[in-house]
Amino acid sequence: MMDNKNVRIIEVVPYNPHWVEEFQKESKKLFRILSKEAIEIHHIGSTSIPGISAKPVIDIMIVVKDINKIDEYNNELEELGYIPKGEYGIKGRRFFLKGLYNRTHHLHVFEKGNQEVAKHLNFKSYMICHPNEAKEYEELKKELAQKHKYDNVAYCKGKDAFIKNIDEKAGEWARTQK
């Protein structure tokens, strides 16, 4: 039998309205630490899209004045349970995990003006306004979670083409909303 404490299990669960409260609670803690740099805090990712199933990990995006100053807060964020991962594959980002195997939050920090900020916000808004595509995304995630229960890399690769397609549509859509 596998020891679940040392293995990250990919699980997609039904939408939980408490995710909004969890985001709000955690945002307050993060803002206390990053208040000198933070400009905006957003709930992003699948848990921010009402009604769709998701991995029960709250994604938080903080927009800051100076990304280079964020590393100075690593110790305080570690005291909250966050693990600093640096840019973690996205230039100009600081990424933090809360919990290694039993993860509860992801923290994405970007400097104001970084194109990733608009990309994340557009994705969320687009999915909320296009529930059929949100449901397609939900079904894809459920299928991938079953297929790749112990392989986060394969799970993420399986979503990649769908996300890129939505990112493109969401960007076009956002331009028409202004």
Largest sheet: 5 strands, mixed
The tally of structural domains comes to: 1
Shape: globular
| pLDDT < 50 stretches | none
Helix content, binned percent: 40-55%
- Overall pLDDT confidence: 95
CATH level 1 class label: Alpha Beta
Oligomer: single chain
What's the number of helices? 5
Q: Architecture, CATH level 2?
A: 2-Layer Sandwich
Give the strand order of the largest sheet, numbering strands 1, 2, ... along the chain. Answer: 1-2-5-4-3
Might you state the CATH topology name? Beta Polymerase, domain 2
Give me the Rg, rounded.
Answer: 16 Å
Annotated CATH homologous superfamily: Beta Polymerase, domain 2
Q: What proportion strand? A: 15-25%
Compact overview of the structure:
InterPro entries: GrpB/CoaE (IPR007344), NT_sf (IPR043519). With 178 residues, the chain is α+β, with helices and mostly antiparallel strands.
Overview of this protein structure:
- The chain has 178 residues and is of the alpha+beta class.
- The protein has one domain (4-177): 2-Layer Sandwich (Beta Polymerase, domain 2), CATH 3.30.460.10.
- It has helices at 18-34, 74-79, 115-129, 131-147, 152-177; strands at 38-44, 58-64, 82-84, 93-98, 105-111.
- Strand 3 and strand 4 (93-98) form a beta hairpin.
- Helix 4 runs antiparallel to helix 5 (152-177).
- The mean pLDDT is 95.
